[in-house]
Structure formats: structure tokens, C-alpha cells
Amino acid sequence: MDSYDLIVIGAGPGGYVSAIRAAQLGLSVACIEKDATLGGTCLNVGCIPSKALLESSEKYAQAADKKGMGAHGIAIGKLELDLGKMLGRKDKIVKQLTSGVAMLFRKNNITSLRGVGRFTGKREADKHVIEVVGGDGAVAQSIAGTNVLIATGSKVASIPGVEFDIGEGGASRVGTSTEALAWPEVPKHLVVIGAGVIGLELGSVWGRLGAKVTVLEYMPRLLPTMETDVGDAALKLFKRQGLGFHFGVRVTGAVAVGDGAKVTYQDGDVEKVIECDRVLVAVGRKPMTDGLGLAAIGIEVDRRGCVGVDEQFRTSVEGVWAIGDVIPGPMLAHLAEHEGICAVETMAGQPGHVNYEAIPNVIYTHPEIASLGKTTAELDEAGVAYRVGKFPLMANGRAKALGETDGFVKIVAHAETDRILGASIIGARAGDLIAELAVAVEFSASAEDIGRSIHAHPTMAESVKEAALDALGRVINF
Ligand code: FAD
Ligand code: NAD
């Protein structure tokens, strides 16, 4: 039986990055992936294809927005959409990146095995024996590992009453994000269930391309875990873009009917029905442990199906580790990567640590919405005194030149120590701007540190500096 220092199960961003880092540290590594291509949810049907379509659809929306372009002195004639080409571009990007992971595996001498990885509960000279199960259900091979890293990610969650009709060739009328990344025509009316990240991103894509979009959300307001002023500003901007929202409603059913679909929801005491031609179900994701054989080694999952871990991502079984979407916490690709790096560095005898206060969270709508650390509501609840600095993009010279003046930067700093505790940015390229604040939090920087760091002029990043100065009562340009 082949044996390895580390067997990684799952080749998503958590698994493949862990495999590479482990190989760099001199460990012998095998990575088992059940799907035909590497890269997991993120590269195949998540982060990357959604961002490709967000970029293409935003270009289309800019070209279609005669008013916005007109202000630049640009008049556009007849506008045409070649959706097939747009989808083809997305597929090409996915292919380049997933085959790039295969190339990185070869470069790092990582053994890449295709099949479902499954614990057997057996031991071979103190190593865990893992079976690799092929598409036909037969065990293709067994391998042994001193360490096994569970990086099996997540799958789509649903709600009672929703009947997916996932068919070939884009036939699905009631589908998940995976189908919504490949619909062959622009829906006339798309109903999105859930105003979370996927609902907002993919609702934006199809809305920009011409669909009427109605979003049904259970919670009473948009983005309830973010700063209230961020959620309020975002709602105003999305409504301006034509997205329709119903908050505080509970979807009770979604079924395909003929060429379209019917969605039923409860609005207070009233049951309402919407007829539409596509439904995107985006009510969250749940950990993926199907077929993994956790019971064989005595690992139990929690109420949500997550595998429990300690701070270095050890499970309750020696030599078995877990990271990414399959463990409790935010489901983010960059977090899965960092957790994986922490786990394998710990395996190799190095200190490993993930700072959960410094994880940027970005929604790639237009404008983008980015946040990290604590919100003011969380600090109020914890009784921590703080100062807030806020700077509107309207007052930033580069934002004016770009025609991207919607939004603001908000920084929350400790009232006495001035240490940055949290930040939110709504605005163009907020996802890039938040990186500075992630570094600041990681290094325990203060608002004074950011305010005294020289930011190039004219850049959007100057708004970050100005927000920090505002927290100190010294804002210059507002
Ligand atoms: P995954 O990426 O899910 O990878 C797990 C892999 O394990 C899969 O390839 C699966 O096939 C494989 N697997 C499962 N069980 C087995 C088994 N028993 N044997 C072998 N293989 C197995 N996050 C962001 O940070 N930014 C974004 O912009 C973003 N956009 C997203 C857009 C969409 C539409 C979706 C759905 C998600 C998005 N996410 C985004 C979330 C992100 O994709 C996940 O957080 C991330 O992929 C988690 O990484 P992971 O390695 O834990 O799991
Ligand atoms: P989500 O948790 O972000 O949002 C789900 C939404 O559905 C919530 O607002 C919830 O209140 C609502 N909901 C639940 N049941 C409902 C019902 N019966 N009726 C109406 N609304 C209901 O989940 P998601 O958008 O599906 O995304 C899944 C995961 O993927 C997230 O954890 C996210 O972190 C990750 N993701 C990240 C990014 C990014 O980082 N840019 C992009 C896409 C996905």
C-alpha cells in the first residue's frame, strides 16, 4: 500500500493550497478529489466563474447605461449581447485555473488521485487507511497517511417546499448557483430566494443583462450582520439598479411549472405567489461529509453537519485534521486556504495560527461591499468604547474622476488605544481597498498609523487614510 505523510481529501482552495504548502515543507502528499477537475467549488462553480460573469455583465451594464457613458462624452450605438460568448469566456477562465492547479500538483510532486476519499477506520503501521472509491462505486485503491486533512468543502442547502429541477443543457427552472452560472438565455423574470452573497452577486449578473429580478429574503433587512449604514446604502444602490426586494418573507415553495416556475411565500399572515421563468435558490451552504466514512473513525458532526476542530484544526481523532467550509465559521475561499496552511505548518512542527479578526469579507456587486473585524453593534454589546471614522467617496478626487462616488469607508478604532477593531467599505474596488485594513488589523495598527502612512494621490485608497483621520477628528477633505 502506498503511504504518505499527508493525505488531503478534497482539492478545493483549502485542500490544494494545503497540499502545496505541505509539499514545500518536505512532506510526501497525496490529494484525493472526486470531481474531474481540481479547484473545488471556488474555481469550478463558485468564486471564479461568478466573478467572470460579474465583470462581463458590469461592462454590459456600463455600455447599456447611456447616461453614465454620456457623462464621459461617449455615445454608444446599438448594443448587442452575445451571451454564449460571455459564458464561453467564463468557462475558459475556469479551465485555465483548474488545469493550473493540476500543473502546480505536478510541479510540487503531489500525487493526485481521482475518486471519493473514504475513511476505513483501519490502521497500517499507525497510519490511517483511506480508500479511494471510483465512479463505479468500487474501491480503486487504498492508501495510508500519517495525517489526513479533511477539506471536503460544502454543498448547496435548501428549504422545505423547494423542488430543484436540475436538467441538462440549462433546462433547470428552479436551480442553484451552479445552474445560474450557465443559463443559456437571460431570464425575463428571475426570482432569487435569499438576499445573501450569492443572491446579490448572481441577482446582479442577470439583472444587469436585462432580467427583472425579485429577491425574497427571510430577514427584515439587507446584510443584517454588517454595519447598518452599509446595509442601508447597499439597499438604496441595488434598488437604483432595478433589483426588487421583499424582506421579512418566508419562502414555502418553489416548483417548475411548464416553461417557468412558481414561488410561494408567506408575507406575514398572507400567502403570496410569484410566477417567473427562473428561480435561484441561494439560502446558504452546508458542510460536505457524504461518503467520507467519518463514523468509521468515530468523528461526529455537529447540528449543522460541521466537523469540530481545535485552534490548529485538529479533529478529535489523532492525525485527522479539517479545514475550510466543512468546519464551523465563515465559508470563504481565502479562509479555507489560511486554515489549511495553519494545519500543515502545525503538522510540520511549526507554529500555526489564523486570526479570525482579520478576515476580509467581500461581496463583489457594484459597488463592492467589504468588511472585517468587529461591527459597532458587536462592540456595543461587548461594552467596548470606540471611535468611528467615516469618509464618503463623493469627497475623493479619484472617485470623481472614475465616476464612482457611491459609498464610503468606515473605520472603527478603540477609544483609548486607537487600535483598529473593524472596518467596512462600500464602493468601487472595496475588495481591494480592504486589504490595507486586513494588514493593519493583523499588525495591531492604530488609526494614527493609517492616518500617517502616505497614500498615493489621487487614489481611492486615500479614502481609507481619510477615514482613519476622521476617527482621530482630523479629516482633511470633508
Ligand atoms: P470546496 O471548494 O468546496 O472544495 C472541496 C472539494 O472536495 C470539492 O472539489 C469536492 O468535490 C471535494 N470532495 C468532497 N468530498 C470528497 C470526498 N469524499 N472525496 C474526494 N473529494 C471530495 N468565497 C470567497 O471567498 N470569495 C468568493 O468570491 C466566493 N464566491 C462564491 C460563489 C459561489 C457561487 C459559491 C457557491 C461559493 C463562493 N465562495 C466564495 C465560497 C467558496 O467557494 C468556498 O468557501 C470555498 O470553495 C471553500 O473551499 P474548500 O476547499 O473548503 O471547499
Ligand atoms: P448566505 O448565508 O450568504 O445567504 C442566505 C440568505 O438566505 C440569508 O440572508 C437567509 O436569511 C436567507 N434565507 C434562508 N432561508 C430563507 C427562506 N426560507 N426564505 C427567504 N430567505 C431565506 O448564503 P449564500 O448566499 O447561499 O452563500 C453561501 C455561502 O457561500 C456563504 O457562506 C458565503 O460565504 C459563500 N459565498 C461567498 C461569496 C463571497 O465571498 N463573495 C460569494 C458567494 C458565496
UniProtKB/TrEMBL annotation:
Residues binding FAD, per UniProt: K51, G117, T152, G153, S154, D325, M331, L332, A333, H334
Residues in FAD/NAD(P)-binding domain copies: 4-340
Binding residues annotated for NAD(+), in chain numbering: G194, A195, G196, V197, I198, G199, L200, E201, E217, G284
Catalytic reaction(s) noted: N(6)-[(R)-dihydrolipoyl]-L-lysyl-[protein] + NAD(+) = N(6)-[(R)-lipoyl]-L-lysyl-[protein] + NADH + H(+)
Matching InterPro entries: Class-I_Pyr_Nuc-Dis_Oxidored (IPR050151), FAD/NAD-bd_sf (IPR036188), FAD/NAD-binding_dom (IPR023753), FAD/NAD-linked_Rdtase_dimer_sf (IPR016156), Lipoamide_DH (IPR006258), Pyr_nuc-diS_OxRdtase (IPR001100), Pyr_nucl-diS_OxRdtase_dimer (IPR004099), Pyr_OxRdtase_I_AS (IPR012999)
Gene Ontology molecular functions: dihydrolipoyl dehydrogenase (NADH) activity; flavin adenine dinucleotide binding
Disulphides: C42-C47
Cofactor(s) recorded in Swiss-Prot or TrEMBL: FAD
EC number, as in UniProt: 1.8.1.4
Keywords linked to the UniProt accession: Disulfide bond, FAD, Flavoprotein, NAD, Nucleotide-binding, Oxidoreductase, Redox-active center
Gene3D superfamilies, per database record: 3.30.390.30, FAD/NAD(P)-binding domain
Keyword Oxidoreductase set for record: yes
BP GO terms, sorted: 2-oxoglutarate metabolic process
Cofactor details (free text): Binds 1 FAD per subunit.
GO CC term (a single one): cytoplasm
Annotated PROSITE patterns: PYRIDINE_REDOX_1 (PS00076)
Active site: H457
Residue stretches making up the Pyridine nucleotide-disulphide oxidoreductase dimerisation domain: 359-468
Family according to the record: Belongs to the class-I pyridine nucleotide-disulfide oxidoreductase family.
Additional notes on this entry: The active site is a redox-active disulfide bond.
Protein name: Dihydrolipoyl dehydrogenase
Organism for this UniProt entry: Enhygromyxa salina
